[in-house]
């Protein structure tokens, strides 16, 4: 489904990603962990199409298409969804109106008729229930004045509505208390299916207690330096990142 | 200066004296004496140049370089209005064509014990003393030569009187149409609005044009807001590419009154709006909202004054603009807090989105505070569309143009949603959506 080959990216002349390789098959959940500043959020942003990042090498194939050639909105229409670490407040645009526009723009891209208002509303209500999102939030301006937990829940709610093939969760657990974390994780889990994949970017193992990954990768200094199963996350939780840093630095000395 | 400048001024002054010479006794009236003083002031001041601090960024040279027919006859029929797609609403709707009241096109729905609405001309004929008691009273100290010019030629417009304790259910909508299909048209409507104690009314002024020739509108509206009264006043401009518009709305508020204004400029070659509010009572609340959306080489200038003369009152101001192409915008917001006006709260904000490197926005907040126990704030921002918001929307599949359009519509909605006359608010939403989908 997603194939990242030797991906390099920089921002303002500074190289952040230094050759990422990653294969994701349908139905798989991959966790990307790593210390602060290792490039985790950059990877998520580059995949979603944030234009500030310059791709300086490598390529990404998504469902047979050259992902890096598509605009952010085309990537979304192809089935990529980024749950933001810091969801943006947009005054004056209600969540419901925003989502209706998004759903119908994606349908248009895929050659489908727009959803009529009644069907859209019915669908949205069902999805809101899935993440225990209060209907009243839907009528409010997008994320405006929402608490941290409400914003993250809104991200997962949008994901449920848009039903992406590949969801990228960028530090969705940051700033959440344990109850909010559970609700968000339940929402993500309910969307798991043999066709849908996810990349879960996180600093802590905590989220992975709820969203159990198939693979765990450690990103450090812009490269994936270690991959393993879900047990790798437990090891990191116990031992921290220092032993990995030491391994990488020892290797660098040897080279 | 060009000789043409002298021409329009001289022509207007000559016109004035020609009219005066054929008056039959009326020339001695108090009403006419005010006009005579006004023409003398206009003669002294002349049209402003950019050396005048109040006109620094708004050059009227182009406006006064042409001649205009100020006495054009009214040739408009109901059929002509169809293309203007005027919004329908159960309201008192008055038409003024080339500055003259058109009774045939107008409709009144409110009863005369609720509100007196008449053309200024008729009102003066029927009750000269009443009209004269309000005429020029609020603007007599105005040093703007366009205001003097309007006073000198004040002939028609609307006279509205809401008696004490009346709440007028249906709004009053004044539609000023310039018919410039044949020639350059000049008009100088003069509106007088007097709202009694504890009376409430909603009034809108809408300016439109038919035709491709130039139109020059120089309008003055005087609004008296009585004690405990509530007035909502909306000014909407959607004129042609050849429309020049200068307008002054002068407001005086008495104790415990509320005044809401929204000034929306969507189209027109050159627009200057002056909104001056004198808060002459305690516990008053004044709200000023503005929106402008110029494109091409359009020029929109909003000058506002909140003059706090008594303690314990509040003024709130929010002006917003979107500028495209080579358009220019000007915002000048003055707040005066006089020595007596302790415990004043005065807030002002002007926010702009400039979408083109060739568009320019000039903003100038001016606070003059002579009292020590007041809360005042002002802020202006001028920037581009929020890139982070744009990316957020695009990451959900919304195309860049559609995302921009949604963000800009939301930006405008802050002001448009303040308009409480449904048909006008919906009309504006439609015109704005249309403008946003153009590019």
Automatic annotation (TrEMBL), chain A:
The keyword tRNA processing does not apply. Residues 2-246 form the ABC transporter domain. CDD domains: ABC_FeS_Assembly. GO terms for molecular function: ATP binding; ATP hydrolysis activity. The keyword Nucleotidyltransferase does not apply. Signal peptide: none annotated. SUPFAM superfamilies: P-loop containing nucleoside triphosphate hydrolases (SSF52540). Pfam families: ABC_tran. It comes from the Bacteria. Keywords: ATP-binding, Nucleotide-binding. InterPro entries: AAA+_ATPase, ABC_transporter-like_ATP-bd, FeS-cluster_ATPase_SufC, P-loop_NTPase. Belongs to the ABC transporter superfamily. Ycf16 family. This is Iron-regulated ABC transporter ATPase subunit SufC.
TrEMBL record, chain B:
InterPro entries: Fe-S_cluster_assembly_SufBD (IPR055346), SUF_FeS_clus_asmbl_SufBD_core (IPR000825), SUF_FeS_clus_asmbl_SufBD_sf (IPR037284), SUF_FeS_clus_asmbl_SufD (IPR011542), SufBD_N (IPR045595). Pfam families: SUFBD_core, SufBD_N. It comes from the Bacteria. Residues 182-411 form the SUF system FeS cluster assembly SufBD core domain. Coiled coil: none annotated. Belongs to the iron-sulfur cluster assembly SufBD family. This is Iron-regulated ABC transporter permease protein SufD. The lineage of its organism: Bacteria, Pseudomonadati, Bacteroidota, Cytophagia, Cytophagales.
């Amino acid at each position: 489904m997603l194939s990242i080959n030797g991906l390099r990216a920089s921002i303002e002349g500074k190289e952040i990603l230094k050759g990422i390789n990653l294969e994701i098959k349908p139905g798989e959940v991959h966790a990307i962990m790593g210390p602060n500043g290792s490039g985790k959020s950059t990877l998520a942003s580059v995949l979603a199409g944030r234009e500030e990042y310059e791709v300086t090498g490598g390529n990404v194939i998504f469902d047979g298409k050259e992902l890096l050639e598509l605009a952010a909105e085309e990537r979304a229409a192809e089935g990529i969804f980024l749950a933001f670490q810091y969801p943006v407040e947009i005054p004056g645009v209600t969540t419901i109106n925003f989502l209706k526009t998004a759903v119908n723009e994606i349908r248009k891209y895929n050659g489908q008729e727009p959803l009529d208002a009644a069907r859209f509303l019915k669908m949205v209500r069902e999805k809101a229930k899935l993440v225990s999102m209060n209907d009243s939030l839907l009528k409010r301006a997008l994320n405006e004045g929402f608490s941290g937990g409400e914003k993250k829940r809104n991200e997962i709610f949008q994901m449920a509505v848009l039903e992406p093939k590949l969801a990228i969760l960028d530090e969705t657990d940051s700033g959440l208390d344990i109850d909010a974390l559970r609700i968000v994780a339940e929402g993500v889990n309910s969307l798991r299916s043999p066709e849908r994949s996810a990349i879960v970017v996180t600093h802590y193992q905590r989220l992975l207690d709820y969203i159990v990954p198939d693979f765990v990768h450690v990103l450090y200094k812009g490269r994936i330096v270690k991959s393993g199963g879900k047990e790798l996350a437990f090891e990191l939780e116990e031992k921290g990142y220092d032993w990995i840093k030491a391994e990488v630095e020892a290797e660098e000395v040897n080279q | 200066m060009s000789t043409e400048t002298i021409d329009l001024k001289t022509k207007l002054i000559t016109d004035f004296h020609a009219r005066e010479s054929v008056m039959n006794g009326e020339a001695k009236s108090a009403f006419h004496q005010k006009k005579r003083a006004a023409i003398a002031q206009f003669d002294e001041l002349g049209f402003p140049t950019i050396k005048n601090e109040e006109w620094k960024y708004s050059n009227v040279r182009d406006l006064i370089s042409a001649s205009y027919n100020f006495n054009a006859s009214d040739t408009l029929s109901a059929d002509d209005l169809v293309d203007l797609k005027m919004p329908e609403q159960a309201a008192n709707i008055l038409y003024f064509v080339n500055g003259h009241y058109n009774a045939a096109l107008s409709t009144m729905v409110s009863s005369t014990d609720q509100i007196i609405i008449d053309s200024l001309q008729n009102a003066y004929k029927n009750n000269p003393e009443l009209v004269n008691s309000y005429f020029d009273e609020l603007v007599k100290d105005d040093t703007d030569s366009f205001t003097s010019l309007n006073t000198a030629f004040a002939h028609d417009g609307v006279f509205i009187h809401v008696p004490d304790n009346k709440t007028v259910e249906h709004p009053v909508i004044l539609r000023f149409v310039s018919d410039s299909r044949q020639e350059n048209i000049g008009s100088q409507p003069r509106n007088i609005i007097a709202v009694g104690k504890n009376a409430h009314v909603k009034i809108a002024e809408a300016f439109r044009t038919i035709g491709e020739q130039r139109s020059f509108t120089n309008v003055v509206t005087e609004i008296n807001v009585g004690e405990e009264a509530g007035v909502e006043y909306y000014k909407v401009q959607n004129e042609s590419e050849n429309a020049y518009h200068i307008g002054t709305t002068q407001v005086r508020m008495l104790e415990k009154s509320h005044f809401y204004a929204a000034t929306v400029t969507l189209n027109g070659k050159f627009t200057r709006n002056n909104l001056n509010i004198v808060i002459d009572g305690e516990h008053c609340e004044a709200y000023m909202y503005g929106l402008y959306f110029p494109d091409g080489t359009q020029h929109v200038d909003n000058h506002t004054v909140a003059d706090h003369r008594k303690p314990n009152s509040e003024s709130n101001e929010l002006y917003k603009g979107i500028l495209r192409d080579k358009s220019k915008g000007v915002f000048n917001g003055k707040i005066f807090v006089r020595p007596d006006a302790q415990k004043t709260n005065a807030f002002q904000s002007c926010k702009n989105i400039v979408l083109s490197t060739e568009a320019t926005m000039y903003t100038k907040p001016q606070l003059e505070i002579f009292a020590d126990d007041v809360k005042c704030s002002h802020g202006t921002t001028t920037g581009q569309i929020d890139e982070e918001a744009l990316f957020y929307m695009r990451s959900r599949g919304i195309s860049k143009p559609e995302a921009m359009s949604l963000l800009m519509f939301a930006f405008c909605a802050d002001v448009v949603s303040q308009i409480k006359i449904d048909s006008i608010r919906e009309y504006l939403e439609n015109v704005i959506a249309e403008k946003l989908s153009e590019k």
